[in-house]
Amino acid sequence: MLLKALTLSVFLFSSVCAESTSFQFYSERLSETTTIRIALPETYRHSSDYEYPLLLVMDGSTQFNHIAGNIEFMSTFAEIPDMIVVGVSANSRLLNFTQTELEQFAGRSGGAENYTKFLFEELLPKLREDYRIASHVTVTGHSLSGLYSAYLALNHADVIQAAISISPSLWWDDFVILNDLANLTAEISKVRWFASMASEPDEMAEGFDYLEAAIGKLTNTNLTWELRRFPDETHDSTPLIGNVMGLRSVFRGFNAVPQIEVKSLEQLHSYYADYAEIADYNLPMSVHQYNVYGLKAAYEGQLAWGVEILEAGIQSFPYSEILWDSLATAYTMNDNYTAALNASEKAVKFAEQHGSKYLSEILLQNANLKRDTQ
Predict the structure, then answer these.
(1) Closest CA to 199 of 245, 240, 232
(2) Where is the signal peptide (predicted)?
């Protein structure tokens, strides 16, 4: 069993932020240039048409790296979807992340609605031109940008499907954001919202106390929410654990086989059809889902299921060295060495094209298969 677990972990391991880039984006609405950072999933080149959900990271200059890394790791094991991660740097945090203008900050606050139009009417269309982005959008923010992601969850479920608010500055303008919560109706679109608070004093803790009391009274809305406290974290450290737990929360139920149990391809399709009804979005299975579920089935006594799942994955991701290599493993387990070698040759081809971190393992399996088929 240990050997199986070790073998499985080799094939599931993924590199972090395999493809990333940045560019300067000028906004006519904001009259300023913003740095945009993008991390594509390692699997992006495994298909020519698969569309990935989007995560927008506010305060991208400081929060982008750790969030992109965690997403790459978590999606590798099908905890959450593969995602395109976009970090948006913040030039004017107080202006862009607050929804109301205060007299003492006149001209420097209250620009959240204008900033929302920048994100979804200027930046997002540009991103969709250049990248294969699905309709599902999640926004995450911390502190003032956590207030902003809360604002989106409560006011703009028309443009996002999920929001994560880490230690949000709910105190702004005498906790005005809580009015938005109280005014939610059943007519809003479905949205998932995770908010958390570290061990923080004064108005930060007070705002979260108010939120806990108010949100528990909600009835008949399409808001699915979770609140968490992290008493061992500080304001600065909490984005690490907060975003991991937030991603798990807003994608709760995404992993069809989180434990040892396995499912057939037909059962997986049925599971995700039900999940789409609950979550109100439908994402086709990704490379990592096919890989995780296929290898789990093969190693847990359902080899035929595993082969079927991996072969289906190849149909959707014909350029995936991960899936071709795993399929070669499954064929070998079934003593089909000719098919295994053919799959392994394709894995080598695409691994070399993609500069895959798996190349040495793929070459080793290929050499072993060549030896065994002589």
Answers:
(1) 232
(2) 1-18
Q: Give the end of a domain, one of 250, 275, 301.
A: 250
**Residue span of the structural domain in which 237 resides:** 16-250
- Closest residue by Cα to residue 1 from 290, 300, 303: 300
Tell whether 35 and 106 lie within a shared domain. Answer: yes
Here the tokens at position 221 are 């809305």
Query: Within a domain: residue 77?
Result: yes
In a domain, 37, yes or no: yes
- pTM, entire model: 0.92
Q: What is the pLDDT of residue 135?
A: 94
Report residue 339 as tokens: 């098919």
Q: Do residues 147 and 165 touch, judged by C-beta distance below 8 A?
A: yes
Q: What's the CATH code of the domain at 337?
A: 1.25.40.10
Amino acid making up residue 98: T
32 and 148, same structural domain?
yes
How far apart are alpha carbons 103 and 251 in whole angstroms? 40
**How many helical (H) and strand (E) elements, i.e. helices and strands, does the chain have?**
16, 8
Triad 97, 101, 103: Cα angle to 5°: 135
Residue 94: φ, ψ to 5°: -65, -40
Residue 4 has pLDDT above 90, yes or no: no
What does 88-138 look like in DSSP terms, one character per residue? Answer: E--S-HHHHH-SS--GGGTTSS--HHHHHHIIIIIIHHHHHHHS-EEEEEE
CATH of residue 108: 3.40.50.1820
Considering the domain architecture, whether residues 176 and 128 belong to the same structural domain is answered as yes
| C-alpha distances out from residue 272 to 192, 254, 263, 278, 297, Å | 18, 8, 12, 10, 17
Query: Any idea what DSSP says for residue 17?
Result: S
Confidence at residue 7, expressed as pLDDT on a 0 to 100 scale: 40
pLDDT for 211-262, tens place per residue?
999 998 887 678 999 999 999 999 999 999 999 999 999 999 999 999 888 9
Residue 258 domain-assigned? no
